[in-house]
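Q: Give me a backbone?
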Amino acid sequence: MNKQERRFGMKRREFVKTSAIGAAGLVMAGSAGAGRPLPNYMPIVSEKIKSGYVGHYIERELKDSVLLCDERGNLNPEAVGWSRVPLVRANLKDHWPRKKRWNFWNWISPEFVFSVTVSDIDFACFCAANLIDFENRKTCTAFSLKPGGSIVMPEEVEQSIFYESGLLQFSMLNNGGDIKVNFACKNMSGQKASADFVIHKPHGHETLNIVVPWSDDRFQMNSKHNTLPVEGVVVLGKKKYVMNPESCHGVQDFGRGMWPYHSFWNWGVGTGQQDGELIGVNMGAKWTTGTGSNENGICYNGRLHKVMEDLNWEYDPQNWMKPWRIRTTYSDMIDLSLTPFHPQKTSLSLGLLSTGGTCCFGRWNGTLKFNNKTVKVNNLIGWAEEFEHRW
């Protein structure tokens, strides 16, 4: 291999590594910086927007199991909708390199956040791990890269997943109940790391499951989970981070889909316990706008309340530390503001391939309304982000 080939290989690795950050700042930490505003919708839905798109709608609730794709690997129309439990099997096929598969987990408490992503984005597979200490603002990361198609990515949400390399080992044993997690890493920013914990899944706990259609051959299935109590420990070097199930909660983003080359999104999460009540909220924008589907929902004490409208996001890409406000405009279900305390920004361009964005961890305050009930949110831990890809 000559110098030019080695240099391209290093750049390709850095692009894949940076791409992993899209789910809540997973891999590389950096200082916050300024950026240009992104459009409110992706180019693939431009014609739908021009034809008179309305940002509130009725989404179909799925009741039965269904395949995501037809025999040609295109979208099965019967899969479009949302459900309270995972019902869609993501039988992706063909359409290389549009297939993107990821299992992202974020275990967050007021003191720290630990994240792991296992992903296959067609031209590469990777496992990315990240720990941020909110008290000293230090971030430690680990990243392992493999060829595309070299790991097993389950088609269904409630299945186990494993990743092993010379650097790290990660396993999630999921048989439909509580999930057992083990992690070991030889070098996480210069320190050995390990984790041994259980994600508790209370009986009847509901999740937000969606299929978003951009076109017949571009679409995304997601399963979003929050407010799942976590019990165990993460060890980094000589420091032990205790996961207390009353204050540490798991958030999952299980994603499978056929993505357009130019893609971008907003994603926000609040999750935790307040006055003895479990409050979780999942909020998105840009990537779902124009489709009549969204990832917006409130999970209150394990019960999902679907928000069937696009959200208005207000934030300043010139100053990520300013408060972010997210609200509904057709109804009054969501009106929340995030006060950031830890921003992360990254960007990388390799000609036709580029990725970048900012994730801000902070505290949510505001109001949630559903079923004639008003919930005041006070200092709920979470994050909000903006990311853009050409992949």
Q: What stands out?
A: The longest helix spans residues 3-19.
